[in-house]
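User: tokens in, sequence out, please.
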């Protein structure tokens, strides 16, 4: 399959496919004219890569996980890496929740100059 065909079937741009190749997540061969050609499993691999990105994984983590995930073999190392990614994500979520709460205080203070957070800020 040519790059445009894979991109269309996988629902991504050709630029994304080139990026995946740069990141060593996807491979292609070249025709004598220099065009990229992908194997029959390329569309499924691209869709799996997309899913892993949507799960918040970095290209480095995806590169490490991809062979095991495709084979359906969850090695202890793979499970350890996924657990570490989940912990990292939980920390980010906690930080975002704290930021949201602070923003809520700011919104309330914007409409009420006597709001508790304004009073705390004045006493600092």
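Assistant: Sequence out:
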């Amino acid at each position: 399959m040519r790059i445009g065909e894979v991109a269309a079937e996988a629902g991504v741009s050709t630029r994304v496919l080139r990026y995946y190749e740069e990141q060593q997540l996807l491979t292609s061969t070249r025709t004598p004219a220099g065009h990229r050609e992908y194997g029959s499993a390329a569309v499924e691999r691209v869709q799996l890569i997309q899913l892993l990105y949507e799960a918040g994984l970095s290209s480095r983590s995806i590169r490490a996980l991809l062979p095991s995930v495709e084979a359906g073999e969850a090695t202890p190392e793979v499970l350890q890496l996924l657990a570490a990614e989940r912990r990292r994500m939980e920390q980010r979520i906690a930080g975002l929740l704290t930021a949201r709460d602070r923003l809520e205080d700011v919104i309330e203070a914007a409409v009420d100059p006597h709001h508790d957070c304004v009073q705390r800020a004045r006493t600092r």
